[in-house]
Automatic annotation (TrEMBL):
Lineage: Bacteria, Bacillati, Cyanobacteriota, Cyanophyceae, Coleofasciculales
Name assigned to this protein: Isopentenyl-diphosphate delta-isomerase
Residue ranges of every copy of the FMN-dependent dehydrogenase domain listed in the record: 6-97, 175-337
Organism: Allocoleopsis franciscana PCC 7113
UniProt subcellular location: Cytoplasm
Keyword Iron attached: no
Pfam family, one: FMN_dh
Gene: fni
């Protein structure tokens, strides 16, 4: 129990203070360019960024991706993020709630519904915990704790391989995910943590009954690097560094999954750093763009810094739509204005 809280504190510190970003492998979005329209025939002030996801209305196609919880610093960060998510009608996920299951005393570090009564709010557990005594009861508990609209099950096999005392039994999980999807009263979203989801795996997850997928591709924070920073011995440290750039680029995941699942609610995360990245992801077929590290950096500073970040992201998204002559997100997705560079 205490080990889980210590790990959460370590993760926050490392992500805020150390260089744990991908360096060689990118999110793949730099391989695409929008066709500029010099005469948009639009009034910029009328551009509409609203959308819906899993039946919930959003003001902007942005997800504050799952990050943290379980410590007092994490509580401060989560509450700052939730306040701004409510203001702009953003979607928000929290970090893995396993620590709250193990130690109910830290449940309040996740309890952001008081700050954000109307947002699309996503609970979160590691899928592998279904092989370590977790089941429907624990999943219901974290959903109820958060008053969540859906449950994220995150997949992190590489991180668990490198993490000290990681949970490495992933056998039979697809059947357990299938059973959970049939029994849980809220939608189940499956996401990676930064190494991507292939089309073949997405197909298996869809057949298992998941309601949405977050590709969480390579190009952002490398959890292999994060765990390398926490290594207890030289082998773990070197293992993390060897696999620091492992994974499928986010852009590739979006394109490949959308090709086999045209209607699947799809989130693009993994190395998105600005509104231009989000716009590219949406033009490739994603419904929402998820960002973690930029929001973490801002929330560690202040609520005002989170507000400023969201205003910038909105301005960047709006500028893309204006300069490609698209008044809505749906038009952007169907306008063929994003070209892959040779």
């Amino acid at each position: 129990m205490r080990e889980t809280q210590t790990r959460k504190a370590d993760h926050l510190r490392i992500c805020l203070e150390e260089d744990v970003q991908f360096h060689k492998n990118t999110n793949g979005l730099e391989r695409y360019r929008f066709t500029h329209c010099c005469l948009p025939e639009l009034n910029r002030s009328e551009i509409d960024l609203t959308t819906t996801f899993l039946g919930k209305s959003l003001g902007v196609p942005l997800l504050i991706s799952s990050m943290t919880g379980g410590t007092q610093q994490a509580k401060t960060i989560n509450f700052r993020l939730a306040e701004i998510a409510q203001q702009y009608k953003l979607a928000m996920g929290v970090g893995s709630q396993r620590v709250a299951v193990e130690n109910p005393q830290v449940a309040d570090t996740f309890a952001v519904r008081s700050q954000a009564p109307d947002i699309l709010l996503l609970a979160n557990l590691g899928a592998v915990q279904l092989n370590y005594s977790y089941g429907l009861d624990e999943c219901l508990r974290v959903v109820e704790l958060l008053e969540a609209d859906a449950l994220i099950l995150h997949l992190n096999p590489l991180q668990e391989c490198i993490q000290p005392n990681g949970d490495i039994n992933f056998r039979g999980l697809i059947d357990k995910i299938h059973n959970l999807c049939n029994k849980l009263p809220v939608p189940v979203i499956v996401k990676e943590v930064g190494n991507g989801i292939s089309a073949a795996m997405a197909q298996k997850l869809i057949e298992a009954g998941v309601s949405a997928i977050d590709v969480a591709g390579a190009g952002g924070t490398s959890w292999a690097k994060v765990e390398s920073e926490r290594a207890l011995n030289e082998q773990q440290r070197r293992l993390g560094l060897t696999f620091a750039d492992w994974g499928l680029p986010t852009a590739e995941c979006i394109v490949d999954i959308r090709a086999i699942a045209p209607k699947l609610p799809l989130i693009a995360s993994g190395g998105l750093r600005n509104g231009l990245d989000v716009a590219k992801a949406i033009a490739l077929g994603a419904d929402l763009g998820g960002l973690a590290w930029p929001f973490l950096q801002a929330a560690a500073e202040s609520t005002e810094a989170v507000d400023a970040l969201v205003q910038l992201l909105i301005a960047e998204l709006t500028t893309v739509l204006f300069c490609t002559s698209n008044a809505t997100l749906a038009q952007l997705q169907h306008s063929n204005v994003l070209q892959k560079l040779a």
